[in-house]
Specification:
Keywords: Hydrolase, Magnesium, Metal-binding, NAD. This is NAD(+) diphosphatase. InterPro entries: NudC-like_C, NUDIX_hydrolase-like_dom_sf, NUDIX_hydrolase_CS, NUDIX_hydrolase_dom, Znr_NADH_PPase. The protein is α+β, with helices and mostly antiparallel strands. 16% of the residues lie in helices and 36% in strands. Strands 1, 2, 3, 4, 5, 6 and 7 form a 7-stranded mixed sheet that branches. Strand 11 and strand 12 form a beta hairpin. The mean pLDDT is 93. The structure holds zinc ion (ZN).
C-alpha cells in the first residue's frame, strides 16, 4: 500500500537527489531520529542509493548500508515492522516499498541462470543480465488471510512466532497454480480442520516483511471441530466479541479485518 498521489520510480543514483525525502536502512532496519526519518547528512555515504518515487512533488530515495558499526547520536535502528506509529503513516508506507526495492537490489546482483552480474534496467524496477538476457523483477508473494465467523463468534488462532497472547485470523501463502479462493479453503482445513463457505472480499495490504501482498477475506463457518495444525498453530478458538484476546498491531490488515467484523 502506498500513500495517495505517490508516483513510483526506480533508478539507481550516484548522488543523493536535492530536497529528497530519504528513507535510510542499515541492513533491514529503518534508521530514525526522534520520531522522524534520519537525516542523510548525519550518515556516511550510502552503499546503495535508489530513487523509488515522488510524493507530493518531492523525490523519495532510499539509502542503504549492509550494516553500520556505529550510529550517530540521536539515530536509532528500528525493525520496519515495529516502527508503525513511530513516524507518519505515509512515510511508513513508503518505507515498505523502500525496503522491498532495497532487498531486491541486494539479492539480485547476480543472474540466477548464468551467474553473471546483472544491471538495472533504466526507469523500471527490474534488473537484466547482459550475458544471457534473463530479466528479474521484485518478488511479490501473495498471502491469503481469512477471518471465519460463526454467528457473532470469530475463529482466531495463534502461531508459535506471534507475540505472547496475540491471536489473529488464519493466513497462508498461495501455492503456485492455486486461486485465492482455493487457498482459503485449503489453509483453513490444514490449519484448523474446519469447512467454510461464502468467502467475501475484504481488502489487501502490502506486507513488506519481506515481500508479501496480504489478500484478506471473511468467510462463514460450515462444519468441523477445531483441530490446530501441529507446528503451525499453537492454539485456535472461537472468541465472542466480549471476550477477545490481544489482537495484531493496528497497522496490520488483520487488525482492520477483525475490527470491521466486530462493528457489523
Ligand atoms: Zn545470465
Amino acid at each position: 500500500m502506498l500513500p495517495d498521489s505517490f508516483q513510483p520510480q526506480y533508478r539507481l543514483l550516484s548522488q543523493p537527489l536535492p530536497d529528497a525525502l530519504t528513507l535510510s536502512f542499515a541492513g533491514d532496519a529503518l534508521l530514525l531520529g526522534e520520531g522522524r526519518l534520519a537525516s542523510l547528512a548525519l550518515l556516511p555515504p550510502p552503499e546503495t542509493l535508489l530513487w523509488i518515487g515522488d510524493y507530493q512533488g518531492r523525490p523519495v530515495q532510499v539509502a542503504g548500508w549492509r550494516g553500520l558499526d556505529a550510529l550517530p547520536a540521536g539515530i536509532a535502528a528500528h525493525a520496519l515492522r515495529g516502527s508503525y506509529g513511530l513516524l507518519d503513516e505515509a512515510a511508513w508506507l513508503m518505507a515498505g516499498r523502500a525496503s522491498q526495492l532495497l532487498t531486491f537490489h541486494r539479492t539480485h546482483a547476480y543472474c540466477g541462470v548464468c551467474g553473471g552480474a546483472t544491471q538495472p534496467v533504466p526507469d523500471e524496477a527490474s534488473r537484466r543480465c547482459p550475458a544471457c538476457g534473463h530479466q528479474v523483477w521484485p518478488r511479490v508473494s501473495p498471502a491469503m488471510m481469512v477471518l471465519i465467523r460463526r454467528g457473532r463468534d470469530l475463529l482466531l488462532a495463534r502461531s508459535p512466532h506471534f507475540r505472547s497472547g496475540v491471536y489473529s485470523a488464519l493466513a497462508g501463502f498461495v501455492e503456485p497454480g492455486e486461486s485465492l479462493e482455493a487457498c482459503a479453503h485449503r489453509e483453513t482445513m490444514e490449519e484448523v480442520g474446519v469447512r467454510i463457505a461464502n468467502l467475501r472480499w475484504f481488502g489487501s495490504q502490502s506486507w513488506a516483511f519481506p515481500h508479501s501482498l496480504m489478500l484478506a477475506f471473511e468467510a462463514d463457518y460450515v462444519s468441523g471441530d477445531i483441530v490446530p495444525e501441529a507446528g503451525e498453530i499453537e492454539d485456535a478458538r472461537w472468541f465472542s466479541p466480549e471476550r477477545l484476546p490481544e489482537l495484531p498491531s493496528p497497522g496490520s490488515i488483520a487488525y482492520r479485518l477483525i475490527r470491521a467484523a466486530l462493528e457489523r
